[in-house]
Design goal:
Largest sheet: 9 strands, mixed
CATH superfamily: Acetylglutamate kinase-like
Strand order of the largest sheet: 4-3-5-2-1-6-10-11-9
Radius of gyration: 17 Å
Oligomer: single chain
Length: 236
């Protein structure tokens, strides 16, 4: 395996139906099968989940007058997704722990770095919800932060497209997919693969990012083995 420890970033939409809403069992099953395949190879897996399939803070900006409150509602949505993913992993015979930056001890553990690392040492998949625990930070930033805290080798951003394009491939038939980019190119070209804070944090710690299609069966294992899939973002 090219990587021994990975941070898998899943958007909320990745857990949803074709429209990216609610929760869809087959989407969860597809992801769970692939996570199992890499854990069976001894790879340590941490997963950061988004909440966009249920609620984003921006979605309720016209309803909720305080932006911080809207963001907190989005953080709660990530906890719902974390519970759904944990259930899917357990159906596939894996031991998983849901940890959250927001304390809700009846349903999950608080995120404590050393405890999370101990779970990983025991072969458990660690699912990280609640964002950073602070408003105004995205789950992309959470992924970069937790990957650095847990000593992960790479951030794997799982999407429904096969990499980073110069424009939306769903709208433009001539969209060009990049195989490799530098952090600087992502920032300068405003490619929006992750938010600026997340990209900068990865750049500062020389943490590679790989963007790939997680819904092609076996792709997660191929990426972890070091195969060239999707788009890789590195320092040079």
């Amino acid at each position: 395996m090219a990587y021994s420890s990975i941070l898998l970033k899943l958007s909320g939409e990745a857990l949803g139906a074709d429209e990216g809403h609610a929760l869809e069992r087959e989407a969860i099953e597809t992801i769970a099968r692939q996570i199992r395949a890499v854990t069976e190879q001894g790879v340590r897996v941490a997963v950061v989940v988004g909440g966009g399939n249920i609620l984003r803070g921006a979605d309720v900006a016209d309803t909720i007058s305080v932006p911080a409150t809207a963001d907190q509602m989005g953080m709660l949505a990530t906890m719902i997704n974390g519970l759904a993913l944990m259930d899917g992993l357990e159906r596939h015979g894996m031991d998983a722990r849901l940890m959250s930056a927001i304390w809700a001890e009846q349903i999950c553990e608080p995120f404590i770095r050393r405890r999370a690392m101990r779970h990983q040492e025991k072969g458990r998949v660690v699912i990280l919800a609640g964002g950073t625990g602070n408003p105004h930070f995205t789950t992309d930033t959470t992924a970069a932060l937790r990957a650095n805290e847990l000593g992960c080798d790479v951030v794997l951003k799982a999407t429904k497209v096969d990499g980073i394009y110069d424009k939306d491939p769903a709208k433009h038939s001539d969209a060009k997919r990049y195989e490799h980019l530098t952090y600087r190119q992502v920032i300068e070209q405003d490619l929006r693969v992750m938010d600026l804070t997340a990209i900068t944090m990865c750049m500062d710690h020389d943490l590679p990012i790989q963007v790939f299609d997680v819904f092609t069966e076996g792709n997660l294992e191929r990426v972890v083995r070091g195969e060239t899939l999707g788009t890789t973002v590195t320092k040079a």
